[in-house]
Amino acid sequence: MLNSNFCILIRSFSKKEIKDFGKFLRQQHARKTIPLSIFEYIRRYAPGFDDPRLDKERAYNQIFPGELYNYRKITDALSDLFLLANQFLLQEKVKTTSWLQQQLLLDIYREKKLQPWVNKTLELLEQQLATDQEDEGLHRKFYYRQLFYDQQLYFNRGGSKVRISSDFLTDGLANLEAFRMFWQLQYYLELEMRRNILNEKADLPKLKALLDEVGQLSHATYPIHHIYRQLFLLMREENDDYDSLIKMMAKEKDRIAPIEQQVMQIYLLNYISRLIRRGQVKYSELAFHIYRSGLASGVLLIDGKLTVTRFMNILDSAIKIGNMPFARQVLALGDEYLDASHREDCLEMGQAMIDFADNELDRAVARIEGNKYDSMDLRIRSRWLLVCLYYDLNAFDKLINHLRAFEVLLRRDQILSEANKKATRNFIRLTRKLYLREAPKDELKTLIQETKPIVNQRWLIKKLGTYRHFSKN
Questions:
Q1: Check whether domain 257-469 has CATH 3.30.750.24, yes or no
Q2: Angle at which helices 418-436 and 396-412 pack, to 10 degrees?
Q3: Whole-prediction pTM
Q4: pLDDT tens column, 192-211
């Protein structure tokens, strides 16, 4: 009982909340005699609720003297208490939050088609927007500040300021379905992006229906919906028409708020980075130019900082197209734009990448060999780089052991997505073929070119230039 959900929850209750919860049970759920009896016993041990006498069997013998211990009886009652405690908290929140009461009433009146009452409730909500100082964050800002003011563009009102009024709120609610599609698309995009970075299964209910709904919206009125739809299809690999997306974004640039342009660029970069990691190096120059402009405009910064992944991707794109001056400039920016918690590791890894590009192989190995980075991104990048370094240095004993250890890491890892694991496993397999000379040169070249997904494809192809001279001895 000490570790039951109910006891964990009630430990967070104030003295007044415990008292009010008792009244709530007695007044509204008086017939639930077993949960009531257990609650009256538990409340004796407030506020910590950690007394040994809260052991289930011990408590049961005190509450139901003379009865044979019934595990199911007390467990079911604790589950009921947990659900009732949640109901109590929700009821108290609605009771003390006036705007939330009006929001719920508004939804009820709309469902019942009581339009005069809808209009009256809208007027009350408008008044509260100007006077209510309660910090209700997500709901209040989402439904009103953002939907009816910051995002006025999606009402097809251009960029002009619109005074919040009852008429405007009514207009906004009439377009609520379009807003729902917009936010749902953004939410799905975020889930899809995480699915490709982490080993997460994105739960995307009614996905096809949403995409069909957005596809039927007017391009002229809702351009941003169609751009996000196209981005989502790219991320899902259900569409590879990247050029049309770029043209659409350029065409609608003046109609899209700057903050939305930033979000779109970040999604684009994540998509392009994924293609590059999988061997499609033709996108490196495009990524480089987007990264460079994004750094200059501040688009790529989150709270004034660069994430580990974004910093490494910018550096990698500059190296891949051979722009070493910019790569060194990015590395220098790390002192300012990287969070202190991972700054040293990022700069060390970045310098090793530059050393490798400059053919300073021993120096690169010395920087990263044996390091255990906290960031999974750095851990995987360092492993990739060490494969290349050991091969180029003819350190084949180290290479063999490293490839085996790399495979074990991938097998045990619970963070990387399956797509990233597959791309890395393909890289390991083909590196091993290079080392063991398992296939004729032309056959191996075709295999490398046609294998997807794969990381470091360009390096593998480059190594074929000396393939005939390679020897294990």
A1: no
A2: 160
A3: 0.53
A4: 765 554 444 445 657 778 88
